[in-house]
Design brief:
Oligomer: single chain
Strand content: 25-35%
CATH architecture of one domain: 3-Layer(aba) Sandwich
Largest sheet: 6 strands, mixed
Radius of gyration: 17 Å
CATH class of one domain: Alpha Beta
Order of helices and strands: HEEHHEHEEEHEHEEH
Number of strands: 9
Structural class: alpha/beta
Length: about 200
C-alpha cells in the first residue's frame, strides 16, 4: 500500500450516518469530490491496475456508481473488458451484469457476446466500507460462471481490509485505509446510545 492524498480528497466527516446500504457508520466521504480531478488519481489507479495485473484478469467489474469511473480506467490500463454492475431494481445492494439478456426486469444493457463463463474478473470500487456493493458484484460474477480473483479500491474503511478477504475468499488491495466503524442499522451502537443521525454534508 502506498501513500497518496486520497483520504483528503474524499473530505471525511465524522458523525452518525445512514449509509444507504442497510448499515450505519461514523464516517461520511464525499466520493464526488474524490473523483473530481482525475489527474490526482493517476498514481493510485496505476497501483490498482498493477494489483489486478498480477491476477491476469480478463475483465474488470464494478458497482456502476462511482467505482465505474475507476474501473474503466483500470480496465483500459490492463486492456481488459469492462463489466459494469447495475443495481438490481428494488434491491438494497444487489447488482447484475450485462451478460445474460432478459433476466432482470428493466435491464436494457447489452449482453456480453458468448457470456463471461470462465473469465477471471477483478472488482474495483472507489471506497469499501461494509462491502455490500463489492459482495453483490462478486455474487453476480459467480452467478455467470466467471471467477472473481481480487478486489481493489481507492479507500478501505474500518476493518474492510481484513473483512473482505475473509467474507469473499479473494485478496483485497486498498490504495489507502481510514479508521471507521459500521454496524447493521438494527444493531447500530450510535443509535443504541441515542446519538441522532447526522445530515449528509452539503456537496
Amino acid at each position: 500500500m502506498e501513500s497518496w492524498d486520497t483520504v483528503q480528497l474524499a473530505q471525511p466527516v465524522r458523525g452518525h450516518f445512514d449509509l444507504g446500504t442497510g448499515y450505519h457508520g461514523d464516517m461520511w466521504l464525499d466520493l464526488d469530490a474524490l473523483l473530481l480531478r482525475p489527474a490526482g488519481l493517476r498514481q493510485p489507479v496505476r497501483w490498482m491496475a498493477d494489483r489486478l495485473r498480477a491476477h491476469a484478469v480478463d475483465a474488470v467489474c464494478c458497482p456502476v456508481e462511482g467505482g465505474a469511473f475507476l474501473a474503466y480506467a483500470v480496465a483500459d490500463l490492463l486492456t481488459a473488458a469492462f463489466l459494469p454492475g447495475y443495481r438490481t431494481p428494488g434491491a438494497t445492494a444487489g447488482y447484475h451484469l450485462p451478460s445474460v439478456p432478459g433476466r432482470i426486469a428493466g435491464d436494457h444493457s447489452r449482453p456480453v457476446p458468448g457470456g463471461i463463463g470462465g473469465w477471471w474478473v477483478g472488482i474495483v470500487d472507489d471506497a469499501v466500507n461494509a462491502g455490500t456493493a463489492v459482495a453483490a458484484c462478486v455474487a453476480a460474477i459467480r452467478a455467470q460462471g466467471a471467477v472473481p480473483v481480487a478486489v481493489t479500491s481507492l479507500l478501505a474503511l474500518g476493518d474492510a481490509s481484513a473483512a473482505i478477504p475473509a467474507r469473499l475468499g479473494v485478496p483485497f488491495y486498498p490504495a489507502a485505509t481510514l479508521p471507521s466503524r459500521t454496524w447493521p442499522a438494527g444493531r447500530c451502537e450510535l443509535c443504541a446510545n441515542a446519538i441522532p443521525l447526522s445530515p449528509a454534508p452539503p456537496p
